[in-house]
Each structure stands twice: as structure tokens, then as C-alpha cells.
Amino acid sequence: MAVTVLVPTALQQFTENKSVLECSASNISGLLDSLEVSCPGIKSRLCDDQGKLRRFLNVYVNSEDIRFLEGAETTLKDGDEVSIVPAVAGG
């Protein structure tokens, strides 16, 4: 199943400067593993030492925040769009 992944500029050094990737995965956790295979080193930027998504990242599936869905176990289906968005803070 093909899922479109929108990659922020800060992570494009791992994707050969591509802002959009196609991956196959049944859930977000599997997507992270798939991204690591095709883009070595990216998972350590997305996940902490326990393998959980970093707190400063927001991940959306079809514009829905996965924190309000099933987190890393959020199911993906063919044609879904996953956006990785670094949190922005300032004052």
C-alpha cells in the first residue's frame, strides 16, 4: 500500500533533499521503520532512545493529529498522506 510522506526541510538531508516520499506501511510505527530502511539515520531524528516519537514532532495522517488517533499504532491505508511537522516555539 502506498502512503505519501511529507518531509520537513530539516529532515531532507536524510531523503536526498526530497520533500515527498512514497512508503508502504500498515501503521505509523511501520512507516518509521520503512523510512529508516530507505533513508538511513532519519528514525533517530524522529524517535527517542525508547523508540517513541519525539515530543517536539507533530505527525498527521490526512490532517488528523495522531495523538488524537492511535498514536504510533494509527492505521494507514493506501493513498493516505502523512505529514511530519516539527513543533515551533518562540516568544
From TrEMBL:
InterPro entries: Beta-grasp_dom_sf, Mopterin_synth/thiamin_S_b, Sulfur_Carrier/Prot_Modifier, ThiS/MoaD-like. It comes from the Bacteria. This is Thiamine S protein. It comes from Dolichospermum planctonicum.
